[in-house]
Design a protein that fits this description.
Elements lengths: L34 E3 L5 H8 L3 E9 L5 H12 L2 E2 L12 E10 L3 E11 L3 E9 L2 H11 L1
Protein name: Coatomer subunit gamma-1 isoform X1
Organism: Equus przewalskii
Pfam families: Coatomer_g_Cpla
Amino acid sequence: MESGLTPGPLMPWATILPRSCPQLEDLEVAVADHIQKVMKLNFEAAWDEVGDEFEKEETFTLSTIKTLEEAVGNSVKFLGMHPCERSDKVLDNKNTHTLLLAGVFRGGHDILVRSRLLLLDTVTMQVTARSSEELPVDIILASVG
């Protein structure tokens, strides 16, 4: 059987995939698929423990989001992280909120996120991420942006 692919350093397996293989369905992998939720009873202590060696911060405008509750819910679901210290609950009649998230990125790396949200006409979100490794931080910020 011929695969139609040329084996090389990036695809050494190319010759073992015959043309007669059924087509696979598209598979979407989200950030949440790489993170396991972890509860941190004391977020600030965990934040300090991870340290700031691999800390990065970016600010985003969420132009399609009109409420803090929606921004918080979407962030928790999209990132697949555990909201700490009941920070997933937004108080009534507030235009600012801080969301604290914790998880373990594949490979066993703690990842912590502090999102400061401001509601004016739309929601602005300042995301600060910390981990013991740089890759989880980069992936979180790239996925939000």
